[in-house]
Write a structure and sequence with these properties.
single chain; alpha/beta; five-stranded parallel β-sheet; 8 helices
Length: 198
């Protein structure tokens, strides 16, 4: 799929924002010619237990964004520090989702984006790190993805992403969560373009 005429909307926190406001989003825009819109604020969570959550920002911005050909949301590592996981709802009604939990926030974001634009909705995970709660969040996201039939760019389980040498990892990552510019361009960016082009 040619992305040059696509409008891609990303919702996320610091990983989506990037170092110096440069992330894989900017790499995608420069490489493919797509219009890439970032709704990213560092330190924020999916769930509403902290200020300026993904849910709150989506509600604030969604009405003013007329076009979106693919909506992409970050599975924030910030939620792994104190946000309740929750569970997959049996409902598809956004009013029934407990957005103070990770699961409820994810489902609310999916339902809201799909209702607004009728476009593909995807989430992406971070790469492997030593964080058991985030690992549980990844598994929760995969369960939700099966319910909603959304895309998941699962960098956590990706064998190629897990196979880098310690030297490559040190070049690609500033810490266990945040890529360097080289990480965004050489490691993450091509994965995103391949995924979004399907």
């Amino acid at each position: 799929m040619d992305l040059s005429k696509s409008t891609l909307v990303f919702l996320g926190s610091s990983v989506t924002y990037g170092g110096g406001n440069w992330s894989m989003c900017d790499y995608i825009a420069e490489t493919t010619g797509a219009q890439v819109i970032k709704w990213a604020v560092s330190g924020t969570t999916l769930c509403t237990t902290r200020p300026n959550s993904y849910v709150e920002r989506l509600d604030a911005h969604i009405g003013t964004q007329d076009r979106c050909d693919h909506f992409v949301c970050q599975l924030s590592t910030n939620d792994a520090h104190g946000c309740p996981l929750g569970k997959v709802s049996e409902s598809s009604n956004p009013a029934d989702f407990d957005v103070s939990t990770v699961a409820g926030a994810i489902e609310y974001i999916i339902a809201s984006a799909r209702a607004r634009w009728g476009c593909p909705v995807s989430f992406y995970t971070g790469t492997r790190m030593n964080n058991k709660v985030y690992e549980q969040m990844v598994e929760l996201l995969l369960a939700i993805s099966r319910k909603w039939n959304i895309g998941v760019l699962d960098l956590w389980h990706d064998p190629q992403m897990c196979a880098v040498t310690p030297e490559e990892y040190a070049r690609y990552m500033r810490d266990s969560v945040h890529p360097t510019k080289e990480g965004y361009t050489e490691w993450w960016g091509p994965k995103f373009i391949a995924f979004l082009s399907k």
